[in-house]
Design a protein that fits this description.
Length: 235
């Protein structure tokens, strides 16, 4: 009798933990959706203004805001259904599960901050040849190139990503590809972009200091560049 009571007590505790986890997931996802929608909408309003829209760096911020919309309108609702309401789309056929995993990975891997930092580096350079790399034409080509590069590098997930045999979970199995993929996520999509952004940021700051020392008359022009550099430094 005591063992039955203990079993019931453990089951009740587990149900309470699962319920608390589901409620927290609902609150967190809804909160992130509201804040994300407000933040990305403000970015779109700011960087689509005529004064900033003609700046090549603003094009990268617009692409970043669009990627943020993809996160809050695609990834967040599906994750909310999966962990907040136990209605997972990943228990669909294997092809559907692989496609969603591929789509989520592509959206999460897009990183336009490197393009922003590189554009600020080119724009702040004292060399006229380097400054030509900061243009609308270059920005309009780099943004689709970023999407194409990420999409191509994530294609192996469609072939080598295996699915767990448990129909209620549909999680990837721990095979060699997933180990290599986890390593690539850590190094290629996390450490390297952060390091590149840091290096470009340091050189950009150095260029700005040099320009303020040598060309005092261009301070009014550099104000816009510095204002666009501030969000990059914060991120």
């Amino acid at each position: 009798m005591s063992s039955l009571n203990n079993t019931n007590g453990i089951a009740t505790a587990l149900n309470a933990i699962n319920w608390s986890s589901m409620m927290f997931t609902r609150f967190w996802c809804i909160r992130m959706f509201i804040l994300g929608f407000i933040g990305h909408s403000l970015n779109m309003c700011v960087f689509t203004r005529p004064k900033l829209y003609l700046n090549p760096c603003a094009r990268h911020f617009i692409a970043l805001a669009i990627t943020g919309y993809a996160v809050i309108f695609i990834i967040l609702p599906i994750r909310l259904l999966q962990f907040g309401y136990s209605r997972s789309l990943f228990i669909a056929p294997v092809a559907m599960c692989k496609f969603l995993t591929y789509l989520f990975s592509c959206i999460s891997s897009l990183n336009y901050y490197n393009l922003v930092s590189s554009d600020r580096f080119f724009c702040s350079s004292l060399c006229a040849t380097v400054r030509t790399c900061s243009s609308i034409r270059v920005s309009n080509r780099l943004n689709p190139l970023e999407i194409l590069t990420v999409s191509l590098t994530q294609i192996p997930m469609l072939n080598f990503y295996t699915i767990s045999s448990q129909p209620t979970i549909r999680l990837g199995q721990h095979n060699l590809f997933q180990k290599l993929n986890g390593f690539s996520i850590l190094v290629v999509w996390s450490l390297i972009p952060s390091s590149v952004m840091l290096v470009f940021g340091i050189f950009t700051s150095h260029h700005i200091k040099q320009s303020t020392r040598t060309v005092a008359s261009e301070r009014t022009i550099k104000i816009v560049d510095r204002n666009e550099l501030n969000p990059l430094i914060v991120n």
